[in-house]
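I hope you will forgive my troubling you with a question about protein structure. The matter concerns a single protein, recorded as an amino acid sequence and a row of backbone structure tokens. Please examine both parts with care and let me know of anything in them that strikes you as inconsistent. Thank you for your consideration; the sequence and its tokens are set out here:
***
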Amino acid sequence: MAKKVIVLTTGGTIASVKDKKTGLLNSGQMSGEELVKMVELPSGIEVIVESVFQVPSTFMTFSHLVQLKDRIHTAFEDPEVTGIVVTHGTDTMEESSYFLDLTVGDDRPVVVTGSQRGPNAMGTDALVNIRQAILVAADDSAQGMGTVVLFNEKIHPARNVRKLHSYNVDGFGSIGYGYLGFVDSDQVFFYQKPLRREVYELKRDIPRVDIVKFYLDTDGAFIRAAVEAKAEGIVIEGTGRGQASPNSVDDISAAISQGVKVVLTSTCGEGQVYPGYSLTGSVHDLHSRGVILGKDYSSRKARVKLAVLLAAGVTDLQEKFSY
């Protein structure tokens, strides 16, 4: 019996059309049906296509992601569906894929892909990425992996994948962790898998969570702005091991006293925040003020996770950020 894969398209560069007058791309203009017609589909796999959104990924919101998550849940009600492919713009793909990883609990895979070049561009990566994503979604070895990102033949875990290059077709990587596997000549190979899966049920709307980046001579202005904007959570992207400016700590403490959940991450590409110093604004100091240590999460991943945890009513936030 043929495998069945559902392809849900959301727009992005992978669905873009070039404006004949300006030569610039109009992102997300092609429907899913138009896009997948261009792909030489693998044999032995039934592919069903549905356009969910047709937007650039910078237009994506948590509201879009909740709708997409619900559509995936509906698709998985069909026991004959082997897996799902989601096409998505690359600018926010690392965030959307992690959101799906945290909110879709089915053992069948969700494979997110996109492209750095439009489908009609010379040397496009759009069509091969779709083909390979379908192969991964149909492969038995992808069961239990959660949501993964297929890009440039590599299969990345949603928790760790980041966009590392602004235009190169090898645009995504999992720094410090490596990819899970790859696709070679239409064969799917996995050689590692995530040790842990976290899945949460959303019990209310996704709250506002902001990111504040720290740099030389930062003060607490953006912390205050986030509180004034009614953010329920703030992710601090600290320097090095996770340090923040001493000029910001009073505002951080004030935010926490008002019930705002604050998570500390590092701007570094690798390594986790760690309380190794005793100075004002250090990880130790911030943690003593009630800041949640964000381990090795990037600020963007931490923001998604904190927003999901708050919407799910989770209270043991430090424990959830410890792995």
